[in-house]
Predict the structure.
Amino acid sequence: MTKPNSKINLAVYWGAACGGCCVSILDVHEQLFDIVAAANLVFWPIALDIKYDDVRAMPDGHIDVTLFNGAIRNSENEEMATLLRKKSKLLVAYGSCSHMGGIPGLANFSNKEEIFQRVYHDSESTINKDKIRPVPKFEVAEGILELPVFYDSVRLLKEVVNVDYFMPGCPPQTERLVEVFMAIVSGAELPPAGSVIGAGDKAQCEECERKKTENKQITKFYRPWEIEDDGETCFLEQGVICMGPATRSGCGHRCITGNGQCRGCYGPCSDTIDPGAKMMSAIAGLVDSKDPEEIEQILNDIPDPAGTFYRFSLPSSIIRRSLS
């Protein structure tokens, strides 16, 4: 894509996301100097005073690599995805939200009307006697004020534009970002377009060092604060939901090393269509009962199955959203 040792033009954009992926680029610490030495940062709204019109004025393909983090929640997100696709040679879905929908994607268990009703009318902290809601356009004396159109569903970046690569994580681990970036800068051969980069293809469990036993059966599930973790035994074997069986490696299983269960942010392995469905299948095989009522009682210990199994992946899953 570029000649070795020449600077590339790098852009970073933030769609529907928390901003952690944008900030994660600074987490490379002193290696940031290597990135700055190899790249011209031409667009990064949280750090640089560069306007949308400046991007529009760039020649097509001017940006070598864009790291697009965040899902597509509204018309502004989609407009910028389309613009950056046009201006970029490589567009990378950077982080869980652009890759799978992420935490914003949990809103697909509701719809626009339900969300607006809760936020602008029913929430405990809302005082809105006039029942005012935001509208895309509103005329005032000075002219027309505009807001992005809020979509009924959260969508993936790849659902609105063609994506070259997917880099998972919430956020992607620093080491993986540096590896991918330096590979691009050096002119190394990249994997086929559409590949997941900066991650492994094994399940987290295959790298996890916690002790596991054969044919472990569970009679009760716990939330992490309800038990005293021994720091050694597999979380699932202690009755704590860990998404390791349905999540690809590559993050260095840092949550587990820090005595926290895997939440699934690195997404499914290449042979898994739906990580939530795979995890539910794994859970079903662990329940130690054949009595339907007892099974139901055991499963009721999981307080939020949908939010647990689809925390990061609802818009990319088989079910995709609620039909309400």
About this structure: The chain has three domains: 8-103+153-196, 112-151, 204-316. The beta strands are 8-14, 39-43, 63-69, 72-74, 88-94, 137-140, 143-146, 150-155, 165-167, 195-196. Residues 224 and 288 are 20 Å apart (CA to CA). The mean pLDDT is 91.
